[in-house]
Amino acid sequence: MEYEQRRLDALRSLDLLDTPESESFDRITRMASQIFQLPVAAVSLTDSERQWFKSKVGIQHNTIPRNKAPCAEVADSGELLVIEDFALDSRYCDSLLGVSGIRFYAGAPLVTREGYCLGALCVLGNEPRKSTEAERMALQDLASLVISQIELQHTFGRIDPISGLPNRVQFSDDMSDLARVAPDENRVAVALDVAQPYQMERLSAVMGPAAYEQVIRDAARSMRTFLGLRAAIYHVSPMQFVFLAPPGIDANGYRATLLRLTASELVSAEIKYAVTPVCAMMTYIFKSTSPTNCLRALSSAVQETRASELSIGLFSDSQDHDYRRKFRLLNDFQAALTDQQQLRIVFQPRVDLLSGKIVSAEVLLRWRHPELGDISPGEFVPIIENSALAWPMTQWVLATACRQLSIWYKQGISTRLSVNFSASNLKEDVVSEIRNNLTSHGLPHHALEIELTEGSLMKHSAQVLKKLDQLVEDGIKIAIDDFGTGYSSLSYLQRLPVSVINIDRSFIQALSNGSREQKLVHSMIRLSHEMEYKVVAEGVEVPEAADLLRVMGCDEGQGYLFARPLAPRAFEDLWKDTQSAANLLTAA
Ligand code: C2E
Ligand code: CA
Ligand code: CA
After folding, report:
1. Residues 120, 193: one domain?
2. Which residues surround ligand 3, an ion (CB under 5 A)?
3. What mean pLDDT is predicted for residues 366-379?
4. For residues 60 and 369, what is the distance between their CA atoms, to the nearest angstrom?
């Protein structure tokens, strides 16, 4: 029973069952049929309840029951089986094959290197027949060819073609085996990350794409030398290798060894200075950690090690918790984009500092996660902005904002909305996206403003500039968000088609600190005006700040003093109030 279980495990781990036909097996099956001059031949694999044919000639079906199948006997015994006449064989005369008219069978065992018999290469005939020694030997040889083919295909998906080392799939299998054999053991698992993606990009830009392969081969060879011939080293992702420290060694005890490894000549001298290898370790408890989780944890520890600019790092649970949450948010945001319940937008009024009336509103995204509850945009936006979902997020916000605004326009609430765009959005076709949204909702172009942070414009290209120019030609205003927190200067911004400056709330909140801070804000406003920008003060929380800003000539203010970000209905009410009598400056 135990052998049978291991045999089935071996068969299933080959991922052969229920795969399509393949010429490399069919060729062997045809040869078997020709040698015996018999109409039927098959590569028949013995699954728990069935014989499944990886390859066959002369039969239609793919599978027959295991019960009373001669191939199953071959799988059990691991030996060649010949049935010269089914009619004379008490065990098989009433078998499925026997009653369907089969009289002759010869099957050679398919035995793996580890000694598991997967099934048989068999030939069948409709007449009783004898077999010669030569035929039986040929059948055995062909069976060995089948096994070689199986193993070849299997290794093909398990060896990294560049390093020649076993890959992630093999790591998972080997670790599962280890966990079965020694579930209570711990080992220190180590990831060596050879270089950062940008380093590889730079290298291939300078030295050509083969540089990547050279780095990988160098690293694989050096690790082999360093760790010894018998160490299992896995190449788990393009730049990452993983191996286990010898049994009985703890993470701290292994640090010195890894320091020597990272400091060694991992890669050849000419590219040595272009890459920075780091190692990350974790205690791998077979019983409680799956191989996939081990790799994931190591990956997160590598990121953390890089972020802290160390060369050796240790996986920590609390950091991992952060990574897992980030990962989860990223993962779950996709669903949020299509689920009507999770995302919504709110509107924070921008107020004219002279009249106290609402002139526009900033659109801010809100996410209520079905299990984690409200997630602050300060947490999820940076994660999404750096992912492939950055554009779908902005598309969603833009479309939703335009839909709401068109409803408001029909009610006579002709306000303007400003939508936050992420840096990476600028590589998309923002111009058509915005035009399409405005047109399909029947909105004028001046109804929309977009906010971009300084940072996103720092490295603008000619194409980006062209897109911004097109937007401005269309009549859409562009605002620089969080101004003052980046490194750009007004003279730099002058080259961009920007018309609004949002002074970051950190400067506005510092106004109460004293005259230095006030002078700073004042000169920001003055300079902006000289360059004909409109100036918005963000994060106005107290009346004193609003008063000061008005005196300084600041055009608009936004902040909790006037209003928090509001749901559509609440915004509507406030807008109507300020259109009639209310003045948010005096009300506040
Ligand atoms: P932001 O673009 O600078 O948005 C202004 C943030 O300041 C908002 O935070 C707003 O609620 C908050 N705020 C407004 N008045 C005050 C005040 O008086 N005091 C204080 N302390 N805070 C105030 P929120 O909604 O949490 O958004 C945070 C950031 O998330 C935004 O900063 C923006 O960078 C990003 N974000 C929000 N929605 C979107 C979006 O739809 N797209 C993109 N790309 N980013 C968004
Ligand atoms: Ca903003
Ligand atoms: Ca801002």
Report:
1. no
2. 481-482, 538
3. 97
4. 52
